[in-house]
Amino acid sequence: MRFKKVAECAAGIGIITAAYAAGAGVIPLDFNLIIPGKASAAIDHVVVPTVEVKLIETSTVEYIEETIVETKYIDVVREVPTKLRNFKSFDELRAWLTRQNRILTVRFTDDTAVIDCDDYALEIQTRAITEGYIVSFQIIDIKQYNEMFTVQLPESQSLHAINLALIENSVYYFEPQTGEIVHAACID
Question: Which domain holds residue 38?
């Protein structure tokens, strides 16, 4: 049997198969394998095709992307809104006004400007807001002013600017130039 011969010389088949796989040519279907021990004396030399195989190593360069996070701290100046509140007590209002009258300055861009009552009232209102207090700008007539405050203003002046503060259910007027406080009304 032909299959038996092929099985007997597995080494020869391996060489021929390697030669065929390496592109040595087409092996004919009726190819007879010569087995070295059973060869006739007429054949001196048998050429067995061989293939040398070398393994060539290759390397692949891989690029890995890395996300680099850089943190920078930047100083940002922001105005944080102050939660405005009314004065809690009469004593708190009086203490605050005493501090303001000691440091009160009115800022103007022009040295020739006339500084009068409304400038002081607006300055006190601005200071109150920056410290978180609710203080209103109030205009009253001279007759009402002279009835409530100790310092009397001339009748020739028709209106005067002062400030107003709420303490619980009471309304208080105060003179920004002197710090005098008077009770004006009760809300309830």
Answer: 1-53
